[in-house]
Amino acid sequence: MAFKAYYLSPEGRLRSDLTEKEIKDSSESKQGLLWVDVVDSTEEDAKFLERTFNFHPLAIEDCVSRNVHPPKVDDFGDYLFMIMHGINYTVESDIVQTTELALFLGTNFVVSNHNVPLYSVEFVRGQVEADDRLMKRGADFLAHALIDALVDNVSPAIDQMNEIAGDIEEEVILSPQQPALENILKLKRSTQRLHRVMAPQREILNRLGRRDFAIVSEEARIFFRDIYDHIMRIEDLNQTLRERMDNALSIYLSSVANRQNETMKLLSIVAAIFLPLTLIVGIYGMNFQNMPELNTSWGYFAVLSFIAIVILIVILQFWARGWVNWGRRRIIRVRPFAVKPEKLVGYIGHLKKGRREKP
Predict the structure, then answer these.
(1) Residue 86 and residue 234: Cα distance in Å, rounded?
(2) Which of 215, 293, 309, 310 pairs as cysteine with 299 (C-beta 3.0–4.6 A)?
(3) Residue 195, Cβ neighbours under 10 Å: how many?
(4) Is 345 inside a domain boundary?
(5) Is 280 inside a domain boundary?
């Protein structure tokens, strides 16, 4: 059983060396503030939570179970039970991995549970050990700090995904190979996985920011609404990533189709050139005795010259139709993006002009 407990007494004394009995007494006293952080829950931890806090068995089961649970908030009257999701940075994977943070929020206690180490929890723990001001603000503010740090740690993953998306877009344009398609699909799966856990959390934070739960004080609700704004921004960025990958996939498929078309065009050009040549050499390859050109001294050179003329005519035809770009001058007209300053509101030239027009 691995847990860390902090208790801020009514006198303002912070303790971190609590026994199980002291934890139970502190939670039942309804005074001060108790924070218990449970890591890698086991059946023994489940029994500890049941006999110490008398939590609902279904909530305890969600903490111990290794299955993925959707984000949610349940009101049990004396306490709230929440499941929030963040990024699991303890594993290396080509696809973003998420993890759960379960929170029990009471009037004078917060119990956090997670099965993998979370940097966000470590950050809040460092704040509590360095300064007890966070604990003095109450259980709802402590829960806010844990959720806020969890959500803030999603932003680095989004930034990294943006950099990967830029590399994928460049790769798709320059070299649309099979690895580019695999990277597109991996990033799309990452965005979908983030969307599945971030979208439900918006409603949870929206409810915490309203008057749905009496445990959350009026002062703390605005802070939960601030996290809601962060979630909305993350969702917007994630949606933009999904659209970029959809566009990259379309570009990839178009590039592959264009390359196939270029290959077919090249094969068509080669076939069109050699088709009349095959006819010529086929005719003169026949073994008839009365073919007049076979006995002439200039026949061989005449046939070669005719073959060369045919090749030249076919190439000129392709060049005239635009199939062959050899020798053509490529003109790329790019107009740089610029807006006339006179059209801008606040342009200083307007002020100078107005001064000159004054009598």
Answers:
(1) 12
(2) 293
(3) 16
(4) yes
(5) yes
DSSP for 19-83 reads -HHHHHHHHHHT-SEEEEEEES--HHHHHHHHHHH---HHHHHHHH--S----EEEE-SSEEEEE
Tell me which residue of 120, 128, 113, 126 sits closest to 149, measured CA to CA: 120
**Angstrom distance (rounded) from CA 18 to CA 289:** 114
Tell me, what DSSP letter sits at residue 99? E
In whole angstroms, how far apart are CA 198 and each of 27, 86, 217, 236, 282? 32, 9, 24, 11, 71
The one-letter code for the residue type at 299 is: G
Q: What is the DSSP letter of 217?
A: -
Residues 89 and 119: beta-carbon distance below 8 Å: yes
- Residue 149 domain-assigned? no
State both tokens at 217.
Answer: 């004080």
3-state DSSP assignment of residue 123: helix
Q: Specify whether the CB–CB gap between 6 and 128 falls below 8 A.
A: yes
Question: What residues does 14 pair with on adjacent strands?
Answer: 8
What was the pLDDT predicted at 83? 95
Q: What is the dihedral sign for C-alpha 346, 349, 350, 351?
A: positive
Q: Please tell me whether the overall predicted TM-score, pTM, comes out greater than 0.70 for this model.
A: yes
Range of the domain at 327: 276-357
For residue 109, what is the enclosing H or E element?
Answer: strand 109-114
Q: pLDDT tens digit string along 6-25? A: 999 988 889 888 888 999 99
Count of domains in the chain?
A: 1
What is d(CA 193, CA 98) in angstroms, rounded to the nearest whole number? 8
Q: Could you give the C-alpha distances from 161 to 62, 87, 237, 244, in angstroms and in order?
A: 30, 13, 10, 11
How far apart CA 236 and CA 194 sit, in angstroms, is 12
Q: How many CA atoms lie within 13 A of 73 on its CB side?
A: 20
Q: Which amino acid is at 156?
A: P
What confidence tens digit (pLDDT) does each residue in 179-218 have? Answer: 888 999 999 999 999 999 999 999 999 999 988 898 999 9
Examine residue 30 and state whether it is found in any structural domain, yes or no. Answer: no
